[in-house]
Amino acid sequence: MARVRFRDPSGSTRIGEWVDGGVAFATERFDLDDVTVLPPTDPSKVVCVGLNYQAHAEETDSELPDRPLLFLKTPNALAAHGDTIALPKDKERIDYEGELGVVIGEQCRNVSRAEVDDVIAGYTCVNDLSNRDDQRVEQNWVRGKSFDNSAPMGPVLAPPDALADDAAIELRQNGEVKQSSTIDDMIFSVPEIIEEITKLMTLEPGDVIATGTPSGIGPISDGDTIELEIEGVGTLVNDFVAKEFTGDTAHDFMPDQ
């Protein structure tokens, strides 16, 4: 069963079941137009992996890493399925990067590869939006990767057994396929990534690991619709507009208190 976090018509935050054309909670069923879909988790952090597909490393003219390259996105970066996202003002290039997201189910540290199944709650889709203007000129990528709403994710938390080892990942821009690969093309597997991260960092329930993007990255423009589909997980859809974020589009993006 794929789970979805949503705000019902009364304003209450619920966790329900994703069904065709709607959301089911207890004995109620809501149409998607009547609810606000929220990010599928409320993480303390999003840990991202860079250059984890060989073809993507080649298109960026980068050397293959000998261990997972890690960086962080902060909670302000969250956005949800269906949100209209305002592109940062006065930036020449904001790129899409479709990625498999791993959602952690329990607090963990020093997890071996053989134990990772015990700490994974499920999977989701993550679009790792990247501000190339600033990423190119700063070392730690705070401006490049953690600007507001730079981590749209969702629409659901799919159970671990829904994801095949060779699940297809495809990103479409205005209906045109831009990224197409399978997750078994990753340089470092999910078990390897979790083992590496937890050597030095405690992961909390709800934390997300974005596992890297395939080749085909490119810029987003005003009016674009981006769809990220991962086989067995679902399809994340967002529209983009070129205006300064005011806090009044879609929902407030802040974690529920």
UniProtKB/TrEMBL annotation:
Gene3D superfamilies to which the protein is assigned, alphabetical: Fumarylacetoacetase-like, C-terminal domain
Keywords, alphabetical: Isomerase, Metal-binding
InterPro entries: Fumarylacetoacetase-like_C (IPR011234), Fumarylacetoacetase_C_sf (IPR036663)
Span of domain Fumarylacetoacetase-like C-terminal: 45-240
A Pfam family annotated for this UniProt entry: FAA_hydrolase
Keyword Isomerase: yes
Keyword hit for Disulfide bond: no
A molecular-function term among this protein's GO annotations: acetylpyruvate hydrolase activity
Biological process (GO), any one: carboxylic acid metabolic process
Name used for this protein in its record: 2-hydroxyhepta-2,4-diene-1,7-dioate isomerase
